[in-house]
User: Fold these one by one.
Assistant:
Number 1:
Amino acid sequence: MEKKTIVTGVIGADVHAVGNKIIAYALEKEGFNIVNLGVMVSQEEYIAAALETNADVILVSSLYGHGEIDCQGLREKCDEAGLKGIPLLAGGNLVVGKQDFAEVEKRFMDMGFTKAYPPGTTIETTIADLKEILGLS
Amino acid sequence: MEKKTIVTGVIGADVHAVGNKIIAYALEKEGFNIVNLGVMVSQEEYIAAALETNADVILVSSLYGHGEIDCQGLREKCDEAGLKGIPLLAGGNLVVGKQDFAEVEKRFMDMGFTKAYPPGTTIETTIADLKEILGLS
Amino acid sequence: MELKNRKLTQDEFFKEREEVLQQWPTGKSVDLEKAIEYQQGIASAKRFGDKLAKAKAEGVTLIQPRAGVALYTEHIKLLQYLETEGEADLLPSTIDSYTRLNRYKEAEVGIEKSKESGRSMLNGFPAVNYGVDICRTVTSSLETPVQVRHGTPDARLLTEITIAGGFTSYEGGGISYNIPYSKNHSLASTIAHWQYADRLVGIYEEAGVSINREPFGPLTGTLVPPCISNSVAIIEALLAATQGVKDITVGYGQCGNLIQDVAAIRALNHLTREYLDKFGFEDVRVTTVFHQWMGGFPQDEAKSFAVISWGAAAAVLAKATKVIVKTPHEAMGVPTKEANAAGLKATKQLTSMLKDQSFVEIPAVVAESQIIKEEVTCILNKVEELGKGDYVQGTIAAFEAGVIDIPFAPSKFNAGKLMPARDNSGAVRLLDTGNVPLTPELKAFHRSKLEERAAFEKRPVSFQMVVDDVYAIGKGFLVGRPHGK
Amino acid sequence: MELKNRKLTQDEFFKEREEVLQQWPTGKSVDLEKAIEYQQGIASAKRFGDKLAKAKAEGVTLIQPRAGVALYTEHIKLLQYLETEGEADLLPSTIDSYTRLNRYKEAEVGIEKSKESGRSMLNGFPAVNYGVDICRTVTSSLETPVQVRHGTPDARLLTEITIAGGFTSYEGGGISYNIPYSKNHSLASTIAHWQYADRLVGIYEEAGVSINREPFGPLTGTLVPPCISNSVAIIEALLAATQGVKDITVGYGQCGNLIQDVAAIRALNHLTREYLDKFGFEDVRVTTVFHQWMGGFPQDEAKSFAVISWGAAAAVLAKATKVIVKTPHEAMGVPTKEANAAGLKATKQLTSMLKDQSFVEIPAVVAESQIIKEEVTCILNKVEELGKGDYVQGTIAAFEAGVIDIPFAPSKFNAGKLMPARDNSGAVRLLDTGNVPLTPELKAFHRSKLEERAAFEKRPVSFQMVVDDVYAIGKGFLVGRPHGK
Ligand code: B12
Ligand code: B12
């Protein structure tokens, strides 16, 4: 079976690098092809990387609280760029402060994300969900 | 001015001795005449001591949670014994668990107590209130 | 017959037993043979002693709450919650105060009033009133070993009912459940009652059922010097072993100075082993329990978490086998189940996080524990001397003489001459040794430690220090300094 | 002109200044003379450096939160709450991420969106957008000294505005606010920007106004070995002193092993003094700050309290001058004011309760701090060598060569070859020293410590340990053990 390709990165002006490095390492070990853009990634960079590598998923991390602002319009830009329907996942600490996650999730779904994850999502959950989304399990 | 007499003790089956020893020590130092009955004091013992020493106040401590049961009827017994109107103060951890103190206070007032005190009442508050009740300040 | 430290004969025990089982109607339902059979059916994973032995072997510290409410259905729910949500490794059933004083009628009233009012009107679980079957319902509803925790001078009937009821560990002792918990019980009477309880455990042991026994370490929980609590724990371990008990957890209540706290557990661990061996009890297993801060707690919940965590840290760094956990409601009253679980989770975080760190062998700890050992040896030598070799007689005489003396104890059989105070680093020292027979060197050591504090505070060593130290924690401090120090 | 570690001339500074003040309209309102006058009017009790000096003299540890919200009225309320309810000794204003990256337009959008939505849409206080007057409104509404805390590679305008705005302490540095906080800024550029900021503080100093400066000690907050964070702190102290800064607080982020944590603060304290003296800065005052656990936090609030408390305890036992406090919401997001106050109160309890205990001179700490000192000396000698005596050139070259190497840093100017892992007691060691120039003896020491762990875990020393260590805390542990260990 062919390797699936995942673009990873931390969006916006966010420099939280630890989770990003760990996710990239763990997913690679799990057999995925990882294109890790690191921290401070713009919407355009995700899209360019996904197009270039023919990616199957874009995995957006945001830790610093401005995720809600930074993620606006990503789905639309994907659509325009010819990435219609590509799964967009978001996780980390997506908003400022401790908020009811059901509401946060709704806001991200409304923005066109495929899934949004609460703080502290384990790598096991991340891997299991990716496999499901990619029809690997 | 004449020394005022205060009967102190821990009511019921309660053996919490530390606060009792410290209160007795502090009030004595403050110039009161203290009749300290120690722990595990019955209603009858308080009354007998108050009568015998012509006490001005009965100070009841209860820490272990059964205070609500142990204090029932004390005011009536005082009345019967000829101690009508003697100030009855209760303090410590008067009830089981963390409860709204306003309600606890009401229950103790309804039982005829002059005043009831929440957990952690400082010795400074205790002394100030005693002086007020005894018209010393 | 004169009370001695010797194993009760079968005759003596069973004769006394007849009386004991008649103290309250539920006593009738205790059938020793069936109870042993029932206990034999309890799996190792649910046996207290086995879980402790495993923890000791692995060098980890287990966590255990206090908890008990009036209604048994609520009690089960509470314990299940602490087991799952609270991540408790070991469970308790804390007994209410009426039961502790054998006032079963008042406990019955408490049960009734609790049913009526919908809130627990008792400060614990009235096991005697419920009897064997309901106790079994409780213990069998849980995955985790359960212990009876109380404070009962005469606990004979409670012991019968709860062990038959499936509890696999039992707290208490003739000294530790008398002097801090009672005003009028003579030591002779409570030691005799606890010989009975220990003998009952011995009988179970002889039938192949091991019940863990735990002397109550912290005593009054307030400025108790380690040499006093260690001496009491060792004596109770010896008394229990004499009756055939084979699994003992000796305890200590946190004083607050880390070096002293680790040293106290270290000394307790070593000395209990030594004394048991000395008297031929090489086959008795010894584990240790560290009690988080047992004195007055801060009112504020966040501050309480800090006190709880500091106790958890000290327990792990001392490599205690288990730690008894307080809750953020401690200063207010019996905790809600949520508050109880919160205390447990905070503690679990540190028993996990610090499990690879040990302070047991650092030089300052070794030196401090050497002092405690010397002190305990002074005390226990005197106990032996007073008892002419008999630890029961010796103990009674020792309390009478103030050779053992527990600060702030309510008992009229306690001398109350010893006066503890903190030194300049917060360690508990002796301001007045009373009649505790320390060597002149040891006395001088205590004195010098307090003079150090006095110099720092620019005031003489005096009783005011003791009072200040009791108040200190309410103000957030360990050492009660005069204003502006 | 080549970048060197030398004091900026008046000409250079004021020329650059013209540009800086034009970066955003609020820059225009900074009048240096009036600002100095304004600062001169701030009472000693409200001056950061004075309060630190007093604490250092008394041997106590002050507590300080992080806090900042988008709307200034809310920000004032928040800080007032932390001052009264939270019992904070020192206050912060944490700056939002857009401001940190000089994206003032986006910060403006954040302010607007916050007004609309009624909740703070920024993760901090956008001081530049507000300008001098509103900053003064903030600082003058409080009884307590206030510090600017951020993470800004180019903080020149922010420094101008906030110091004119009455803040008396300022965090950051050309390395510590670049490598952990940025991807593309060159070290040369950020060091230059921070020479400017330090020179500005120097100008205030020369006018008799002392502003406290604090390099950001914890760096990436994740498995940073003490020798790395200490080296960076000392370099930044030297660079700041060169520009005329006279009051410096050097910092360190808790690693979790108590001996190592106390040793790190001890070494930092001694070495900063030594190096400042060596270069003739005997008149620079040095204090220390300990950061409670800076890595990933547990989700559970009770468990977070335990982590917070453990950090508080370590800070006090290390006799740090102040401790930066986390909150029980850490894993979730920017805390509510209540959660923030709760973290503070837990910390206050222990800074009070343990203030009379010190671990600074226990043998294990002294030995560990000796090792850190040797390591730092290796690193700083190499920095001097690479820079031919110049610490700025040396630092830039050192990062290029991986002589200084910060784990998990996002910056492309960081080598990323060093690999840290915990030893069997949880102390952070070097699994791969990369190009950090330790002596063979020191390398062997690190290796042996990790072999000890490997033997215990029955697996080879490998990168998997690093990954396991990062995950460990999420599972409650310090050391990431393989299953069943
Ligand atoms: C030490 C202690 C013990 C020691 C007592 C040793 C002894 N003989 O003295 C031991 C370990 C033996 C013990 C036993 C028990 N305890 Co206890 N104990 C405590 C603890 C930790 C401290 C009490 C103390 O010494 N405080 C210090 C002194 C100086 O303060 P104080 O007594 O509160 O008194 C001050 C004020 O309250 C005030 N005050 C007191 N009385 C009055 C009266 C008036 C009129 C006024 C104005 C002021 C006033 O002035 C004092 C000085 O400032 C408290 C919890 C806490 N407060 O932190 C629990 C606590 C009181 N115990 C409790 C319980 C349940 C028990 C036990 C039933 C079970 C158990 N947990 O083991 C047994 C009871 C046995 C019995 N029959 O009484 C509960 C009571 C629960 C409730 N009310 O809901 C508490 C609150 C703990 C808890 N949260 O569960 N305990
Ligand atoms: C370490 C840290 C830092 C370090 C970062 C160093 C570095 N360059 O990496 C430093 C100190 C520099 C830092 C800076 C800041 N930080 Co910070 N930081 C943290 C902290 C403590 C840990 C983050 C971490 O490394 N976790 C460990 C890794 C392994 O976990 P993770 O990143 O969460 O990722 C895991 C999961 O979330 C999940 N995951 C992540 N992304 C995704 C995506 C998908 C699709 C899925 C399925 C899963 C997933 O998988 C990972 C592995 O399990 C967190 C709080 C916390 N979580 O405990 C705050 C935190 C993230 N920081 C915060 C803030 C505000 C900041 C600052 C703005 C201000 C400040 N406090 O200094 C600056 C931001 C600078 C910037 N421009 O980004 C806030 C964010 C607030 C919010 N969202 O409301 C937090 C939550 C702290 C707080 N409670 O205030 N920070």
Note: The mean pLDDT of chain B is 94.
Number 2:
Amino acid sequence: MLELFDGPVPVEETLARWYKEEATSNYGAFIPFVGTIRDEDGISGLSFDIYTPILNSWFEAWQSKAKESGAVLKMAHSRGDVPLHTSSYIAAVFSPKRRVALEMIEEFVEDFKASAPIWKYDLKDGKRIYAAERSTKIKGSGLLKVKK
Amino acid sequence: MLELFDGPVPVEETLARWYKEEATSNYGAFIPFVGTIRDEDGISGLSFDIYTPILNSWFEAWQSKAKESGAVLKMAHSRGDVPLHTSSYIAAVFSPKRRVALEMIEEFVEDFKASAPIWKYDLKDGKRIYAAERSTKIKGSGLLKVKK
Amino acid sequence: MVTIEFLGPIQKEKISLQASSLNDVAVYLSADEELKGWLESCAVAVNDTMVTDLNTALKSGDRVSLLPPVCGG
Amino acid sequence: MVTIEFLGPIQKEKISLQASSLNDVAVYLSADEELKGWLESCAVAVNDTMVTDLNTALKSGDRVSLLPPVCGG
């Protein structure tokens, strides 16, 4: 399940809901990763653009991979502006055993950072500035650059 | 902070409370690990004994280690009986950045399993049976065995 | 005609053009001063599927998307 | 006198005995049939601090704890 929110992700409510949803699914381990906007570099918040069709297929590919290990993934992400000290992101894995869950949450979050079609902007001095330096080229980038 | 509960850990409430406690501490990453009792081997639940003085010092040593990385740890655990599909354990790390949090939650949970003075029992057919096969000798075990 | 769309921070309206492969698209876009820099940093999708082969054939109605460097979370 | 206490699943009341080191405790306990098996699987704490040296000195009032294999979570 992939959930998008306009503005901050309601963390307490979302964690509680996910926990309840899987309460009797017989998963022994549940690991959510919650990402919160830090006060740094004078920003007043972050803002996000998301390209949903590719995000969905990226997520579905991960969900299939998780299923092979008997696990299930959930994810929530913000669209638009997210103020300081609120959260823009939760990724979670449920699995029967802890090793699968510990390994999968790490791989899932890292691949999310490297591949998910989401663009981040700093909100600063009333402007929305693309976070170019913190962004990662998706694998295969540069395809359209004509070799001289 | 280390919290012990008689019976199941109230997961939704505990996660919400921890999240709120650190809401303005400027941690960018929050990763809780929630352990839930699986229905397996015909058990009706698990039961736990805890030796608090050594658990506290084990936890305090970890908290100091976390502090060196700018992180903070929280933990909740059950004492006594915990029925199927309820939770006996939450370990959580808050840290400024995700890499520290991802690495620390894994190390913390694994060391917890290997070192924390907690004993597990299966609740089965009205009996409380020590889970000897799933238990791990603490480092340095066998000290008192007299060599022949 | 195929459509080229620019995602995220690339401030550019979509373009329609004749192209029988991604290579045609590359040649066309490389003449666009606005896209300098973006071409080497962008990944490419055709009809919302990521592609990595410049010889990928295109047919009329296909949609090519340029995805700049990402940073979710 | 030092006190020996048995934690978790070891069903045994605490014992008091004269001992000037952990080695004395080891010798004493090894004669106890009930503890067969536990001695090789248990870790040891003195006054709630884990110890790994059999020469650890003991003084009157010290508390030695035996910790069987653990399984939290």
Note: The radius of gyration of chain B is 17 Å.
Number 3:
Amino acid sequence: MTSSNRYTASEILTVLSARALENGQLVFAGIGIPLLAATLAQRLGRPGLTILFEGGVIGAFVEPGKLPPSTNDQRCTKRANMVLGSADVLLLLQRGYVDIGFMGGAQIDQYGNLNSSFIGDPDAPKVRLPGSGGGNDISSLTNMIVAMKHEKRRFVEQVDFITSPGYLRGQNSRTDAGLPAGGVFRVITELAVFGFDAETRRIKVLSLNPGVTAEEVQDNTGFPLTFDDGVTVTEPPTNEELETLRMLDPERLFTA
Amino acid sequence: MTSSNRYTASEILTVLSARALENGQLVFAGIGIPLLAATLAQRLGRPGLTILFEGGVIGAFVEPGKLPPSTNDQRCTKRANMVLGSADVLLLLQRGYVDIGFMGGAQIDQYGNLNSSFIGDPDAPKVRLPGSGGGNDISSLTNMIVAMKHEKRRFVEQVDFITSPGYLRGQNSRTDAGLPAGGVFRVITELAVFGFDAETRRIKVLSLNPGVTAEEVQDNTGFPLTFDDGVTVTEPPTNEELETLRMLDPERLFTA
Amino acid sequence: MPSSDVQSYATLREDLAKRDRSLREKVVSLEEAAGLVRDGMQVGIGGSTMSRTPMALIWELIRQGRKQLSCSRCIVSTDGDLLFGGGVADEIVTSWFAQGILWGLSKVMRHHVEAGDKRYQEWSHLAMGMRFRAGGMGVPFLPIRSMLGSDLMPLRPEAKEFDCPFTGEKLLLVPALNPDVAIIHVQRCDAYGNAQIDGLQFMDIDLALAANSVILTTERIVSNDQIRRMPDHTKIPFMCVDAVVEVPYGAAPHECYGLYEPMMKHMEAYVAQVNADPVEGMKAYLDRFVYGPKNWTEFLSLIGMEEIVEASRQGRSMYND
Amino acid sequence: MPSSDVQSYATLREDLAKRDRSLREKVVSLEEAAGLVRDGMQVGIGGSTMSRTPMALIWELIRQGRKQLSCSRCIVSTDGDLLFGGGVADEIVTSWFAQGILWGLSKVMRHHVEAGDKRYQEWSHLAMGMRFRAGGMGVPFLPIRSMLGSDLMPLRPEAKEFDCPFTGEKLLLVPALNPDVAIIHVQRCDAYGNAQIDGLQFMDIDLALAANSVILTTERIVSNDQIRRMPDHTKIPFMCVDAVVEVPYGAAPHECYGLYEPMMKHMEAYVAQVNADPVEGMKAYLDRFVYGPKNWTEFLSLIGMEEIVEASRQGRSMYND
């Protein structure tokens, strides 16, 4: 509790994300917060957490202070159990070997669809974003956690372009489209933690981050939010969590 | 010429087969005579002949006196350029990287179709033979040489079962079946060397082995043979060819 | 389920979700490992012909009286004889089944298949590979350009001829094969199942990914630290693996790349005996070499020190310059 | 041919039959190798993001003024900037195109794509992999289970939605990609082109098999004897390869596994300069670092000894225990 004023938005995002991962799980982590959070979880008493990276890595232990600049760099392979082709590591998702896909997001909508391709009309975009990478594959093939900054322009009713499918148009539309497995089940921001309604597949607030009000979350969201019946308040980051995190990312590469 | 009485049927078969291979070619060789003949060709001034084996080998140099008992044994990999998966080496044929497939045969017909699956009715066979192995793939995907013993029961008008396709029912039937590439272009026996008519795709005698008459070849064949207009007589094995061969297979594993 | 049916994606995913894929130690005895293979299962077998055959595990399955297995392997040799003759397999799915070029046809296979009490389901070698690969990729089929036009195609209606929507060409779609269990012998792995395979890998990587459980027998169990020093040498990742058994000479009398070649005197005596009489010869072989020994090491001592040493000398000579 | 058209099998086979695939020495200069890439070709690029990018060859293509290339790569970073900004590529086919997580969007890509003078054709990462793999296998497509339902699917009508004849499930068939030429950087290969790749291999093996010609740049040319001592370490076989160029630090300022990490000061200065002005900043970069140096070694000396040594120290530390 005493540390509540002493962490950045990126830091609480990372800590809460790390908490969502369990020892023994196989987690396919994207670059940035997901990589850092999964590494943090390993260091916080979950050494049996296996991290997979898109570059073609199974079971890496990233070294403190040596965060890789992408998931395709050699630093991702340090003390890994296996290095393999990048299509082959994605096929592990398709086959079903991976428990959790864990990605950042640029823009998300009420059904958990992610856009990382276009702002505006795809034929004449206002902004051409980087694109899918493995994002489409991960979200199509695996149960997924998204960690992202909470801003009104990022939390929209409907994304301009579905790069990575959440529940598409809700209900059974994801399964009907040919995606019977996986789906986003958690969205973690610096304000709150979200889940999805089992039937409508619409996003809902599960818990508020320490010191954050429901109103504040709604104000930063571009559509009317649903709050779970039993909305809780998340425990603030502990000193151990923050210290370990700062040891891992001393230059604040991902937690600026 | 002086050596004409001093070689076995297997030996002339191997020597003539080796002669059919050129330096620089990529040859996918089956076990037995093909492996031995390709190795002989390497030793007779064609060191740039690359031998591929079904076990997953590119560019092996089999050692004298250490002939492998199959193309899936470690002896096949000695001083190879590459070892890879056995499906992957077959995919090289499908992609088109290999010049020549080179196999033995149990039974062949007038269109070069090979049977290594069943004698008699496949539903209640008189003899269940070993089956295709890579034979079907090699003959479907590559220009092929077949080396085999010449017996009436092995050279038949129509095989009981097409395990490995030659020209199927002749003319364009092979291409029409979905096999536009490759096809058997030489059959080598201890009696003669055969090619195929460019149009009918029926087998024909190109040359007679030394001391063999046309009648003798016909007598040992289960259907009426066509003889090429310019049928020649093959040069007998030289002392160098025979000596090198016997150095490679001192125990007469494949040349008994 | 018939061995040629393609599993639905929902079934595949559910079965895999149930497995404990976490990083955990999995070392068990040969007897316990064989217990994971149950009557009637589809069993994928690693290695090829006489190479890296998981012989110790097959030997133990016969000893435990396993029944009605459907076994698949890229190429089958005397292991197939034992699976049929030892009573454990009713069906073998493969591309080639004989004792080897040195000995010709398998009289044991002929005896059982021609009499109709056992089945040999034949595919081309590439088709076997693409069936395992499809299974490992989590797709129901892969396209190939062989088997077309031959009599193998009508023999295998489980594969489907198909007009390519891109090029109009004819292709054959071969169905995924996802065995219930795969048994694979490797040179070394760690206690979690991270396996290194030296030399010929055959179809073992695809098979390990395709199967719904995997048993590794290994010449040697090494530390996880050793694996992590060369992660690009790992060929099978731990999360595919359900059990690890250390069995030195676990492929005997077949070979294990870089360690030992086949034990040819034992093989020759075996072939002479079963080809002379595929029923009584096999029974005598099983009595003496499978049911007789107390354990695998005693089986090795029946092969004899001279053969083991000679096979090892030959095997290690692969690395002579 | 449009970059998304699938080549017929007849064309693929004819093109491959014309190549000299024999075991022969293929060592050429960087200048000669770049000459094998002709205007308008489809060029597949090895490595990924900032790893094992064949930077020296890309640098030489810009110097030689190559034009209208369609370049494909699994993931594109500053190499894509240079291909667009240097005027050599009109189209980039990939799954992700940015400067890297540290710097965010590529202003150079945005400038050209949003203005419409260059095209970024987007696929999912797995789709890129399966496109190269289909190309390498000699089949016109492979089935995948992603891209379905998303807006990427209608964006890419080159892929075909498909009802599986085995299971009735929806699948996406992605078309084979067989580039005219692949450019791949490796740690070592022999004069024939037998290549060893350490660590991350990305999609390079599939790409090498798929392409209709392959240029390898390599940190080091080793003897064929050395290759033949460990044939299971060869990742790309010689018959795929048409030219071999020895270029130490040939991926600079990107990384090469086990040898050097990215040269971050150079990268940061580059990014700051081109993001401030994607046209003039790029022009200034090209003038100084691409057109300016006499040769690749002079480019390295512009990066500076301190950066090269530090990147090498970091790169080699991968093998520290």
Note: Chain A has one domain: 9-248.
